[in-house]
Specification:
elongated, 7 helices, 340 residues, alpha+beta
Length: 340
């Protein structure tokens, strides 16, 4: 049904086809509100989009910038000929330096508009100072069409979804167990090693590198997220690391779309017509709550129950798994053979 047909269903149920008590614009708003709530509650339908690095020109990074590398102690500095546009705590991949300890993915600090710095483990003398830097995040912007992230993948490879608290807890656990012994009774102090501070011994997960395995965010409706770990090699960055014109891996996000309502009487909801009755119920719930002599809280509550029943049913039915099917190959059951 389109918006006009939905509105006519609502007006018929209200016995107000002549708009004596509810005008079309009111009912249209009730329909829009019901559609938004249905989508938010049922997590259906879903849509996909490419996540972008803020300021970048590709789904996973931007054009590289050439600079000159210097080192002071264990702090590496890259100086560019112009304004680089990076921000503190951005992650960049550095390449072209010698020795190789200066190449790889690093979280950076930005002491000026033309320089950036990062920490290294040794600080050996630089023998080749001509480098290139390319931004890889670590923070990416969620697609503008998505309200809530459901899943993420890189070129079809599914990524895990973590929260910062999960990674912090896992890192602290690894640091703590360094000086603990595990037995059938649990963990006990290790008499053969000294207790090392968990602060010093905790892996810094924000600086870990390797193939991207997960995205990290703390709120379901967050506008941005981190990648984890930071890409380490060209193969972790590019679809074909050996190509002259390199293409970044595509970071695809699937989730619940942002729904604002129906734009015209000929527009139909994105949800399947199977669930249009729920939108009618949601609009009727709101109509009977209108401040007037016709206000009927009991009828509103009745339609509220009908709406929620449909929305919850959609949440379980549309979130389909193979175990939810019971036909053909997915039919559950077993056979018992008895011998005489």
């Amino acid at each position: 049904m389109n918006r006009k047909q939905l509105r006519e269903r609502v007006e018929t149920a209200l016995q107000d086809t002549d708009n004596r008590h509810w005008v079309d614009s009111e009912i249209n708003q009730y329909i829009d509100d019901a559609l938004v709530e249905f989508t938010r509650t049922s997590k259906y339908p879903q849509t996909e989009g490419s996540a972008t690095n803020p300021g970048g020109t590709t789904p996973l990074g931007e054009a590289s910038q050439a600079g000159t590398l210097t080192v002071d102690g264990k702090t590496a500095t890259i100086t560019f000929s112009g304004v680089h546009g990076y921000s503190a705590n951005n992650a960049v991949v550095v390449s072209g330096a010698s020795p190789s300890e200066y190449n790889g993915a690093f979280n950076i600090l930005v002491p000026s508009t033309t320089t950036l710095t990062y920490k290294v483990n040794f600080g050996n003398a630089v023998t080749d100072s001509s480098v290139a830097a390319v931004r890889i995040g670590p923070v990416y912007t969620k697609p503008s069409t998505i309200a809530e992230i459901v899943s993420a993948n890189i070129d079809g490879r599914e990524l895990s979804i973590y929260t910062e608290s999960e990674l912090n807890a896992a890192a602290a656990s690894r640091g703590y167990r360094y000086f603990m012994l595990e037995s059938s009774m649990g963990f006990h102090p290790n008499a053969f090693s000294s207790a090392i501070s968990t602060i010093d011994n905790t892996p810094k997960w924000r600086a870990q590198t390797g193939p991207i395995e997960a995205i990290v965010f703390n709120n379901r409706t967050a506008d941005s997220f981190r990648i984890y770990p930071l890409p380490k090699d060209d193969k972790d960055l590019y679809v074909d690391k050996d190509a002259t014109a390199k293409v970044f891996h595509t970071l695809t996000i699937r989730g619940v779309p942002i729904v604002s309502g129906l734009s015209s009487d000929t527009t139909s909801p994105a949800v399947n017509s199977y669930w249009h009755e729920a939108i009618v119920y949601g609009a009727l719930e709101r109509a009977w709550l209108k401040e007037s002599k016709l206000q009927n809280v009991e009828k509103s509550a009745m339609y509220r129950n009908k709406f929620m029943e449909q929305a919850n049913q959609a949440r379980y039915m549309e979130g389909m798994t193979s175990g939810a099917l019971s036909e053909g190959r997915n039919q559950s059951g077993f056979r018992i053979n008895r011998s005489l």
